[in-house]
Amino acid sequence: MEVFSMSPTSLFFFFFFSIYLIHVLLRSFLLSYRRRPKLALPPGTLGWPYVGETFQLYSQDPNIFFSSKVKRYGSIFKTHMLGYPCVMISNPEAVKFVMVTKSHLFKPTFPASKERMLGKHAIFFHQGQYHSKLRKLVLRSFMPDAIRTMVSNIHTLALDFLISLEGKSIDNTFLALKTYSFNVALMSIFGKEEMKYSEDLKSCYYVLEKGYNSMPVNLPGTLFHRSMSARRQLLRIVADILNKRRWQMKLDGRDHHHHHPHDLLDSFMTDKEGLTDEQITDNIIGVIFAARDTTASVLTWILKYLAENPTILQAVTEEQEAVMAEEKRSLTWEDTRNMPLTSRVIQETLRIASILSFTFREAVEDVEYGGYLIPKGWKVMPLFRNIHHDPDIFPDPTRFDPSRFQVTPKPNTFLAFGNGAHSCPGNEMAKLEILVLLHHLTTKYRSVSKRTI
Ligand code: HEM
């Protein structure tokens, strides 16, 4: 039986058509290959299989590890840490590319334990529409226009905090200051009325935070397990606050969607697209996480630098005394806008201490930058501290010199609050609570170094 047959003419055409097709395909392949030369990975070493260079990182000061790599390979280099191949970047243009102009190609990434502790709906883990919505709600509570009404409450919290320390000897300044930053965070989230929950919230949160960097093994007795049950307790307290607030809103006849939000919880509850209770709670825990240790840490470094630089401390004290020269009254928002030297001390501390030395992103697809390939799935770490300590950007970088901020830093060189899509929405709030505490410290106590704190 004849299954398949072709006439000689068809065979001839088939043969030439095949040759033509192969020629076209080969040409387009060669052209595209020539147009897109195979990109090289950034310079650097990946270390041992699996562990990479994790031991090198942890066996020395991480800052020395990074700066010696920068010296050797330049401002973009590859390494392998904590189980992931990474590209480190430490020049302002590369940071702008990753965090601002092409931020959609680099998603934020965190260890699994942190995501489960904070809650999967928290702002840090998202991109796109949900992230923009949350950012809008957080920003409207922490923009200058919103926080100017909080000055008198922060003023009271700062005074109460300092009075509570009087006569006590303080072993750990950072731990003490965490109480202040925690109270300010709670006030900005829940308003003054809900401060009665603060002790319960605090004790749950303290257990929860211990598990942030733990192994995510949820077995009785593990740190992770204890933290997860503290989280559940925290959820119950927040649910209670939410219910009371809804009830109060109904009693007051307040419109859920249109009234002007008083605090972050209000802002979350009055979103017309609606956040679920779980989304609200995850983001409340997230904001406490973002606000508390960061601000307390910066305050601790400021106290250290002021104690080491008596001339600057004297000038700050004079500036603060001048704010209240004429009368005894509560601090106002306008007063806090009139503290240029103290503000520069905050900026210089943020630069020199670089409390967030770097952040993590992950390439969502293969990305080309500066002639190098950043492969999909690789972590990308903008090294803020290296930029803040680059002598070409900040001359004599280890010297504490607030006057350098008399000139505005060039774009993408001062990254204490990040930049772009995920930059810190609480930066004005952080500066405000630091200014208020410094005001009371310098005007009401004789000397930063000899005082109990
Ligand atoms: C001096 C204190 C603070 C410092 C140094 C700081 C620093 C930062 C940095 C560098 C980022 C960006 C991280 C990244 O891009 O991966 C960030 C994000 C964030 N910060 Fe702050 N922060 C401070 C205080 C605060 C405060 C007081 C709040 C809230 C009131 C806050 C809320 C947030 C939130 C919600 C994000 C995530 C934003 C997003 O993913 O869109 N921070 N912070």
Automatic annotation (TrEMBL):
<dbReference type="GO" id="GO:0016125">
    <property type="term" value="P:sterol metabolic process"/>
</dbReference>
<keyword id="KW-0408">Iron</keyword>
<dbReference type="GO" id="GO:0020037">
    <property type="term" value="F:heme binding"/>
</dbReference>
<dbReference type="Pfam" id="PF00067">
    <property type="entry name" value="p450"/>
</dbReference>
<keyword id="KW-0503">Monooxygenase</keyword>
<dbReference type="InterPro" id="IPR001128">
    <property type="entry name" value="Cyt_P450"/>
</dbReference>
<keyword id="KW-0479">Metal-binding</keyword>
<comment type="pathway">
    <text>Plant hormone degradation; abscisic acid degradation.</text>
</comment>
<dbReference type="GO" id="GO:0016020">
    <property type="term" value="C:membrane"/>
</dbReference>
<keyword id="KW-1133">Transmembrane helix</keyword>
<dbReference type="InterPro" id="IPR017972">
    <property type="entry name" value="Cyt_P450_CS"/>
</dbReference>
<keyword id="KW-0349">Heme</keyword>
<feature type="binding site" description="axial binding residue">
    <location>
        <position position="424"/>
    </location>
    <ligand>
        <name>heme</name>
    </ligand>
</feature>
<keyword id="KW-0812">Transmembrane</keyword>
<dbReference type="GO" id="GO:0005506">
    <property type="term" value="F:iron ion binding"/>
</dbReference>
<dbReference type="GO" id="GO:0010295">
    <property type="term" value="F:(+)-abscisic acid 8'-hydroxylase activity"/>
</dbReference>
<dbReference type="InterPro" id="IPR036396">
    <property type="entry name" value="Cyt_P450_sf"/>
</dbReference>
<protein>
    <recommendedName>
        <fullName>(+)-abscisic acid 8'-hydroxylase</fullName>
        <ecNumber>1.14.14.137</ecNumber>
    </recommendedName>
</protein>
<comment type="similarity">
    <text>Belongs to the cytochrome P450 family.</text>
</comment>
<dbReference type="InterPro" id="IPR002401">
    <property type="entry name" value="Cyt_P450_E_grp-I"/>
</dbReference>
<dbReference type="GO" id="GO:0009687">
    <property type="term" value="P:abscisic acid metabolic process"/>
</dbReference>
<feature type="transmembrane region" description="Helical">
    <location>
        <begin position="12"/>
        <end position="30"/>
    </location>
</feature>
<keyword id="KW-0560">Oxidoreductase</keyword>
<keyword id="KW-0472">Membrane</keyword>
